[in-house]
Structures are given as structure tokens and as C-alpha cells.
Amino acid sequence: MFYKLSRLGIAEIRTQSKNSQHGGSSLFKSWKGLLIKKEASKSKDIIKKMESDAMKKIEKDNQKKEYQLRKFKIRNKIMNFFSLKSSRKFCAFYTVTFPLNIPDEIAYKLLNTWLTRCRKLQGLKSYLWVAERQKNGTLHFHLITNNYMNIREVNEYMKIALKNAKKKDLLYCEDKVLEKYNGVDVDNLYHSKRHKKKNKRLSKIEAQRKLMYYLSKYVTKNETKSKKLPWHCSRDISALFISVNYSEYSENEIFKLVSDNPEAVKSFHNEYFSFHYFLFTPEEKYFVSLNEINEKVYQYYNQN
Q: What are the Replication-associated protein ORF2/G2P domain coordinates in residue numbering (predicted)?
């Protein structure tokens, strides 16, 4: 048994041993401040069997599969993304909307086209997006990035993508609607539109709270179901760690932090593992090593 301390609380893991000082990275383990790449399985037979089983599972469930947000993971990813030094200097929140009644598949294709152009023409490198369904049933997307992009130009990229989709008969929409398209909106999290009247730059603490507000509104209440992935991020953000791992000997120290409110305890079980999550907001002093190792992860991908 070991414990994962994240910015959302503590998870008690009952089925595996601690083999990394930090958890949640898609690429790395960590030990004493060093990054260690995770090793792939050395057995080709095992890999082939896993691939075969996966394909059979996909074929069986292809028509039934629906994805939902892994809310704890994505909230932690966003908070650790926001805790990077470069994100503290600048962080923007984009909302990408579409004309009414666009099918999910087309919305995802348009988003991918838009992201490709943003990467090539605006220098978009680090980002995380989440899909959300509006009341009218049409998907829209929220994207967080610490890379500056020109809002007029990124709006034009989506307008071009929409027009091209219409030419290919993938989209049915009046020309005048596309000509007036201005569906990509941006909010600078350090100088939010909502604080425009105050005309002052938000402090880091206020910005952190603002980001948590967005998380609460757009992620924790988001019950969107889709046959496509409900969220995705760039490789550097995927590789960020989200927790500090503790062994059993740290139990007494850790549980001094835990709230005694029974409603703050969430339990999850499946055929592979079970864990209990104790929800609270730990002080930032517990995440010094997490911030340091994540800076190394980020530099690994963004050396130039």
C-alpha cells in the first residue's frame, strides 16, 4: 500500500508498491530528482497478445464505447500545467465553438485541423483541451495553453477549416454564417476580461483561484459523453507528474493533512485495483519536489 498526494488530496492505493517518488507521468518515473524513462515490455509475445486482445475488445465494443472525463486526472494535469514557471508568466484559456448541429466527428476533425495550423503558424506547443456539450447538443472545446497566439489569426484558421469542410459537403451551413464566424474566444488568466473594470493584473494566488474556478465550472460538472476522447494534451503536459508518492512509513505524517469530513472521501473500485481519495486542498509547500521534477520534464520537451 502507498499514498499519492496531489493538489486535490490523498489517494490510498491498495494494490501496488511505490516505484517512483512522483506519479501520473505518461513517460517518466522519478527518483531523487532524476527522470527515468519508463521501460516498455521486453516480451514481444506479451505485446502481441495485448494488441490482439485490445483489437478484439475494440471490435466488440466499437458501437457501444463512450468516453467520459477522468475528472481527478485532468484536474490534476491542469493544475500542474498551470504551476510551471512558463505558465505563471502567461496562461490563456480558449473556447472554440461551432455553428449549430455540427456532428461530433466533424467537430473533432475541425479541432484537429485548427490545432495543426496553430502549431505550425502560431508556435502552439503546450496545451490541454476538454470537450463539452452545449445545451443545444453541439460540442465545443476549451483549451489551456501557455503559448501566446494571435486571436484574429486563430479565428481565421477555424473559419477556413469550416469553409473547406463545407466545400467537401461535410458541413451544411449558410455562407453568411461562416463569413461572420468569430467562434474562437480567449481569456488571459492573468488579466481576465471579468476583471477588466478593475484594470489590474491578478496576483499568482488570485490567478490560481481563477483557474480552479474554471476547473470547477468546465470540468467537474462536465458529464459529456462521446465516442471520441473527451480531452487530450500535448506530449509535454501528458508527461507531467501529478502526485507525490509516499510509502507506508509516512502514513501518520500524511493523515495529519486529511479532513475528517466523511463527504470528502471518494472510493473507486474495479477488477484491477481500488483506492480511496481523501479530498482537500494541501498547502503548496508539499509540492516543492513535484514542481522541480515537472520543470525538468517540461525542459526535456522544450529545450529550444
A: 93-222
Cell of 81: 500545467
Partners of 88 in the β-ladder: none
| DSSP-derived 3-state class of residue 236 | helix
Which letter does DSSP use for residue 67 in this model?
A: B
pTM of the model: 0.81
Place of cell 498551470: 82
Q: Are 128 and 141 in contact (CB under 8 A)?
A: no
Domain limits, the chain: 1-30+241-304, 66-240
Do the beta carbons of residue 5 and residue 253 sit within 8 Å?
no
Q: What is the pLDDT of residues 132-170, one digit of tens each?
A: 888 888 899 999 999 999 999 999 999 999 999 999 998
Is the separation of the CB atoms in 297 and 35 below 8 Å? yes
Look up residue 160 and give its three cell numbers.
Answer: 477556413
The architecture (CATH level 2) of 66-240 comes to 2-Layer Sandwich (3.30)
